[in-house]
C-alpha cells in the first residue's frame, strides 16, 4: 500500500470515524445537558422561539453599525475565506466526485481554472486572517493553541491542494496523498477544536435570539 | 545469425542502410531524452555491440508482455535489435523444451557469467514454499535466485514482475511478490505496464547495449526517459480537464466529443508511462484516444485502487456501518457526559439545601 492508497483508504476512514463520533458526542453532550426551565412569562408581543432564533441568526450575519468599522476587516475577510472554502469544496469537480463517493449524489462543478483562482484568493485570505490575529493585541491576547491549530488544519488542505494542482514540490501522487491526509487531519480535529463552530454557530445564535426575545429584547 | 557478428554487420546483412541505423540511434537518443551528442555514441557503440546474451524467465504471468513485444509493428529496427540479442532461454519462444531448455539456460549462464541480462516477466509466488508456480520442477523463487546470481542486470518486464501486478492483487492467494523484492544485490530495471510499451523495452535494451550501464531510473526503478511524466501531463484531452469538460459516462455527449475521462475513472494523473506520447501499434492510438480512461497499469497496486471506473478523487473509504456506529457511540458518550453533569449539579443542589437546613 503506497501513501496515496493509505490516504484514500484507512486514513480517511479513521478520519470519518473520529468525525462522526466527535460531532455526535459534542452535540449530544451539549443538547442533553440539564437546562433550567424558564418559568417567566414571555414579554408581550415577543415572537415565538423559532421566529426569534431565525431573526437573530440573520441579524448577526453582518455587524451592527456601531461595530462596523472596528470589525470591517474580520467580517469581510471572514466572508471571503468561508465562501472560498465553500466554493472549492462544493463546486470543485474532484471534490464533488469525492462527496459523491461518500453520499451518492453529485451536481455540476466549476471549471478547474476558476476553482484554482478561488483557491488562491482563499489561501491569501487565510494568511491575512493569521497576520491580523498576530498583529491585533487584543486578538493575540485572547488566542489559544486551539485557534492556531484550527487555522493550520484549515490552511493545510488549501495549501496542499494548490501545490497538487500546480505540481509544485513532490510528485503529483505524493501531493495528492498529502492533500487527502490533510483532510483526514481536518476531520479528526473538527469536533474537538473551534471548527465545531460550523455546527454550533447557528445553534448558539438561535438559542440566544430565542432567549433574548422571550425577555422582550427587540431583535 | 553468427555469434561473433556485430550489430552493424548483422543489420547490414539484413539490408538496413547506415543512414537508417543512424536515424534509429538518434530516435533512441530522443526517446530517452538524451543530449544530441548521445546519438553518435549510441550509433557507434550499438554498431560495435556483439550479441547480448539474454535469459528470459516467465513466471506468474499471462504472456501478454511477450506478445506485446514480439507482435509490435514489424518490421522495425527494434524488432531487428530484438532479433539480434541472443535470447538463450525463453519458455514461450524457444523451440526446445523440458531438459534441453533447462540445459540451454544453464549453458548460457556458464558461458556468459557476469555479462548476461535476465529479463523476467511475471511475479514470484512465495506462499507454501513457492509451489504455485514451478518450471521443470524448480520453483520460480529458486530459478530466479540461481539465474540472477551471475547476471549483469535484471530487467523486470511488465507490472507483474515490476510490482507484483495481478497475481499480487488482493487477496494475493499465492503470496506473489515483485522481482525487486527478491533480487536486492544487483540492479533491477522495472519496465512496468500491462503490457509494457515495446519501445520502452527495446529502448532500454539499446541503452544497455550502447552504454553498458543502466539508464537513469526513478524511485520505482523505472527508466525516467519513459516513465518520467504522467499520462495526464501529456494527454491531448488535458485542455478539457482544465476547462471542466468531462464525459460523465461512456456514451454521453462529452464522451462523443472526446472530453476528459477523469470522472469515469481515468488514472492518468497518477500513471507514469509514455502511452500518451509513444502510443501503441506503431503510434496509432492509446487507451484514452480510444475512449477509455487510463487504468494506471504501470503503477504498483493498480488492480486495488478502488475500481477502474471510480474517479481518482473518490475515496476508497466509505460512509459504512462503522461511521454510523461511531455516531451512535458518540451520542451514547455524550448522553453519559450530560448525565454526569446532571448528577453533579443535583448533588451540588442537595448539598446546598442540606447546608441551608443545617444552618
Ligand atoms: S483523460 Fe485522463 S489523462 Fe487525459 S486529461 Fe483527462 S484525466 Fe488527464
Describe the protein's architecture and organization.
The complex is a heterodimer of chains A (219) and B (359). With 219 residues, chain A is an all-alpha fold. Chain A has one domain (3-28, 64-214): Fumarate Reductase Cytochrome B subunit. Helices cover 74% and strands 0% of the residues of chain A. Chain A has ten helices and no strands. Chain A has helices at 3-31, 49-59, 65-68, 72-91, 93-103, 112-135, 137-142, 145-166, 172-189, 197-214. In chain A, helix 4 runs antiparallel to helix 6. Chain B is of the alpha/beta class. Chain B has two domains: 7-226, NADH:ubiquinone oxidoreductase-like, 20kDa subunit (Rossmann fold, 3-Layer(aba) Sandwich); 231-356, Cytochrome-c3 hydrogenase, C-terminal domain (Cytochrome-c3 Hydrogenase, Chain A, domain 2). Chain B is built from 16 helices and nine strands. Chain B has helices spanning 7-13, 18-31, 36-48, 64-70, 77-84, 98-111, 140-148, 159-163, 165-168, 198-211, 224-227, 231-234, 238-243, 253-256, 275-278, 321-358; strands spanning 53-58, 86-90, 117-121, 124-125, 134-135, 138-139, 153-157, 176-177, 188-191. In chain B, helix 3 (36-48) packs across helix 10 (198-211). Chain B is elongated. Chains A and B meet through helix 1, helix 5, helix 6 and helix 9 of A and helix 13 and helix 16 of B. The complex binds iron/sulfur cluster. Iron/sulfur cluster binds next to helix 12 and helix 13 of chain B.
Amino acid at each position: 500500500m503506497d501513501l496515496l492508497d493509505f490516504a484514500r483508504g484507512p486514513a480517511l476512514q479513521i478520519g470519518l470515524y473520529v468525525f462522526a463520533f466527535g460531532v455526535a458526542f459534542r452535540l449530544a453532550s451539549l443538547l442533553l445537558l440539564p437546562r433550567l426551565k424558564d418559568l417567566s412569562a414571555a414579554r408581550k408581543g415577543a415572537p415565538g422561539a423559532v421566529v426569534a432564533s431565525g431573526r437573530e441568526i440573520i441579524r448577526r450575519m453582518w455587524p451592527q453599525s456601531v461595530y462596523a468599522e472596528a470589525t470591517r476587516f474580520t467580517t469581510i475577510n471572514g466572508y471571503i475565506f468561508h465562501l472560498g472554502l465553500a466554493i472549492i469544496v462544493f463546486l470543485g469537480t474532484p471534490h464533488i466526485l469525492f462527496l459523491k463517493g461518500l453520499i451518492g449524489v453529485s451536481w455540476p462543478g466549476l471549471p478547474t481554472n476558476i476553482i484554482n483562482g478561488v483557491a488562491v484568493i482563499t489561501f491569501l485570505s487565510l494568511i491575512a486572517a493569521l497576520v491580523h490575529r498576530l498583529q491585533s493585541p487584543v486578538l493575540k491576547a485572547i488566542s489559544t493553541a486551539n485557534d492556531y491549530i484550527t487555522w493550520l488544519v484549515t490552511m493545510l488542505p488549501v495549501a496542499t491542494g494548490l501545490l497538487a494542482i500546480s505540481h509544485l514540490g513532490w510528485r503529483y501522487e505524493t501531493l495528492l496523498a498529502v492533500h487527502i491526509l490533510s483532510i483526514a487531519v481536518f476531520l479528526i480535529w473538527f469536533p474537538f477544536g473551534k471548527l465545531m463552530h460550523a455546527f454550533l454557530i447557528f445553534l448558539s445564535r438561535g438559542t440566544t435570539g430565542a432567549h433574548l426575545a422571550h425577555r422582550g429584547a427587540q431583535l | 545469425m553468427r555469434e561473433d557478428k556485430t550489430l552493424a554487420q548483422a543489420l547490414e546483412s539484413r539490408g538496413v542502410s547506415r543512414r537508417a541505423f543512424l536515424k534509429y540511434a538518434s530516435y533512441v537518443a530522443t526517446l530517452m531524452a538524451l543530449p544530441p551528442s548521445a546519438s553518435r555514441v549510441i550509433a557507434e557503440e550499438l554498431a560495435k555491440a556483439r550479441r547480448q546474451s539474454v535469459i528470459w524467465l516467465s513466471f506468474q504471468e499471462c504472456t501478454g508482455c511477450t506478445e506485446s513485444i514480439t507482435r509490435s509493428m514489424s518490421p522495425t529496427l527494434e524488432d531487428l535489435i530484438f532479433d539480434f540479442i541472443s535470447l538463450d532461454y525463453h519458455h514461450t519462444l524457444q523451440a526446445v523444451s523440458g531438459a534441453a531448455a533447462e540445459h540451454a539456460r544453464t549453458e548460457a549462464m556458464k558461458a556468459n557469467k557476469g555479462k548476461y541480462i535476465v529479463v523476467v516477466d511475471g511475479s514470484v509466488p512465495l506462499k507454501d514454499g513457492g509451489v504455485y508456480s514451478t518450471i521443470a520442477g524448480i520453483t520460480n523463487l529458486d530459478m530466479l535466485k540461481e539465474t540472477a546470481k551471475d547476471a549483469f542486470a535484471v530487467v523486470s518486464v511488465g507490472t507483474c514482475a515490476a510490482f507484483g501486478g495481478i497475481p499480487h492483487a488482493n487477496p494475493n492467494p499465492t503470496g506473489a511478490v515483485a522481482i525487486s523484492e527478491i533480487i536486492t544485490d544487483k540492479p533491477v530495471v522495472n519496465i512496468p505496464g500491462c503490457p509494457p510499451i515495446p519501445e520502452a523495452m527495446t529502448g532500454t535494451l539499446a541503452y544497455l547495449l550502447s552504454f553498458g550501464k543502466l539508464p537513469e531510473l526513478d524511485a520505482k526503478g523505472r527508466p525516467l526517459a519513459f516513465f518520467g511524466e504522467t499520462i495526464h501531463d501529456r494527454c491531448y484531452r488535458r485542455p478539457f480537464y482544465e476547462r471542466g469538460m468531462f464525459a460523465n459516462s461512456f456514451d454521453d455527449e462529452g464522451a462523443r466529443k472526446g472530453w476528459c475521462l477523469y470522472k469515469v475513472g481515468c488514472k492518468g494523473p497518477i500513471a507514469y508511462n509514455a502511452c500518451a506520447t509513444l502510443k501503441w501499434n506503431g503510434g496509432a492510438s492509446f487507451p484514452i484516444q480510444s475512449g477509455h480512461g487510463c487504468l494506471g497499469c504501470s503503477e504498483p497496486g493498480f488492480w486495488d485502487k478502488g475500481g477502474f471506473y471510480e474517479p481518482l478523487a473518490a475515496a476508497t473509504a466509505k460512509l459504512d456501518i462503522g461511521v454510523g456506529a461511531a455516531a451512535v457511540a458518540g451520542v451514547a458518550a455524550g448522553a453519559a457526559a450530560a448525565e454526569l453533569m446532571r448528577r453533579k449539579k443535583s448533588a451540588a443542589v442537595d448539598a446546598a439545601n442540606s447546608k441551608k437546613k443545617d444552618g
